[in-house]
Amino acid sequence: MGKDPTDLSTLDDVALLQLARRGDDNAFLALYRRRHGRVYRFSVQMSGSRSIAEDVTQEVFIALMKEPDRYDPERGSLEAYLYGVARNHVLRRLGADRRYVPIKDDEGDSGESLDQAYQGDPHSDMARAETIESVRRAILSLPEHYREVVVLCDLHEMSYMEASAALGCAVGTVRSRLHRARKMLLEKLRPAAEPEVESDGLRSARCVV
Description:
Elements: H1 13-21, H2 25-47, H3 50-66, H4 78-96, H5 114-117, H6 122-141, H7 144-155, H8 160-167, H9 171-189, H10 197-205
């Protein structure tokens, strides 16, 4: 019988996965609880759809459970690996259906909406929510290979090295794509707001699904 998940909180991802490989279901559950939220947010930010993100997150962890040996610690962190798997599933979904489903249009979602994300002064909260929504729309409008580096590096604050492991490309490629993507975002956002809106919006968007 496996350990209680609370006893596993001090173990790193690789140690948890090793236990899960040996049949410790609680280790896998602890790993899922630790990482599924970020995989879900990445999938939402890449697809613009909560329903796609829910399906992709489930598929990612089912794949990890079925084939844990596909992860190679020498090639990067488990988090980067999970993002890479999620990215492939998201792009497959978007390839089958090129339409983006706006986040606010998903009904019955229990997650936090933009209007619920901030409490306090309604005017400043509304302005911030509008900024975040503008950044989200701008990110979703980027070509996929630019969108994914923005999501990984700016929203999830991954290093170039971690992002390159997730995407399976060179560090220099990540750096150059991110530079170009940020310029594209500024061009998209500049007509509607001050130049600071990109950095402010990205910082705030990291905290909201």
